[in-house]
């Protein structure tokens, strides 16, 4: 007996983390700052899922095409673009994304590759589709009892007990990242909370990846290529020479990234 091949194709809804670029006006000045970062870390955007959100710019369609071309010439490959009219979708633009939001997952989800978190996201997406098809846009408010019983989610830090090598990316949007060892040049550590490196930080560290401005970066020895807190960046060339090689903390003071010695 022969078995006929299935003619069905399976489609599933999933949520994946992506880094979001948010250009600001004046756009020419933002492009200049982008070029400065790329001059210091030319491979920063390689092999990453990148979305550009242009909601703050209010671009015309022609200007959007020009921006996409400028990013393309800088070898920034985009997963999608958000903040524009969905009717602008065409072959010349990346897919237009809507409804993006921060995805929360528990530590056990991280340990299993996020499988259970994705399943919950899939179910939530299907529920939203079902509500839209029914024409329901009303969400019932929680009762007073439910609100009183609700507790904020608490996430344990992600602990990396081995060196982070060149080309590796550690991404943990749920909270702090602790690296017991060095972070090599060409490696990325991205955290929703603070970053602690008990070794030499030679790569790139981005704390407060979702806009948490109270996040900080701590390292035993600073030799970083790039630092960021709450979305504000500091390149290697902008770091004070006397802070390199020191045991330091890094934090955000309004729109400035500050560095201070700890010993």
Automatic annotation (TrEMBL):
Query: What Gene Ontology terms for biological process does this UniProt record contain?
Result: cell morphogenesis; division septum assembly; regulation of cell septum assembly
Keywords of the record? Cell cycle, Cell division, Septation
Origin superkingdom:
Bacteria
- Pfam families associated with the record: MinC_C
Q: Which stretches are transmembrane?
A: none
Keyword Heme recorded: no
What the record says about family reads: Belongs to the MinC family.
Primary role: Cell division inhibitor that blocks the formation of polar Z ring septums. Rapidly oscillates between the poles of the cell to destabilize FtsZ filaments that have formed before they mature into polar Z rings. Prevents FtsZ polymerization.
Assembly state and interactors?
A: Interacts with MinD and FtsZ.
Can you say what this protein is called?
Answer: Probable septum site-determining protein MinC
């Amino acid at each position: 007996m022969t078995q006929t091949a299935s003619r069905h194709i399976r489609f599933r809804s999933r949520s994946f983390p992506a880094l979001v670029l948010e250009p600001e006006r004046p756009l020419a000045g933002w492009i200049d700052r982008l070029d400065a970062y790329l001059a210091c870390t030319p491979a920063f955007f390689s092999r990453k899922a990148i979305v550009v959100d242009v909601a703050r710019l209010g671009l015309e369609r022609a200007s959007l095409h020009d921006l996409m071309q400028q990013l393309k010439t800088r070898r920034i490959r985009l997963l999608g673009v958000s903040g524009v009219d969905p009717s602008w979708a065409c072959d010349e633009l990346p897919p237009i994304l809507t409804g993006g939001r921060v995805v929360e997952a528990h530590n056990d989800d991280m340990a299993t590759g996020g499988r259970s978190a994705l399943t919950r996201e899939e179910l939530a997406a299907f529920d939203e589709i079902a509500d839209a098809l029914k024409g329901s846009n009303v969400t019932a408010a929680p009762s007073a009892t439910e609100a009183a019983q609700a507790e904020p989610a608490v996430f344990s830090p992600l602990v990396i007990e081995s060196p982070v090598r060149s080309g590796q990316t550690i991404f943990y949007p749920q909270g702090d990242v602790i690296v017991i060892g060095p972070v090599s040049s060409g490696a990325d550590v991205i955290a929703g909370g603070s970053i602690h490196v008990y070794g030499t930080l030679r790569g790139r560290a981005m704390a407060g990846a979702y806009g948490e401005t109270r996040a900080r970066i701590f390292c035993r020895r600073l030799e970083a290529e790039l630092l960021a807190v709450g979305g504000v960046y500091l390149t290697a060339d902008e770091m004070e020479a006397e802070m390199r090689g020191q045991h330091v903390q890094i934090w955000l003071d309004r729109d400035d990234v500050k560095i201070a010695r700890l010993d």
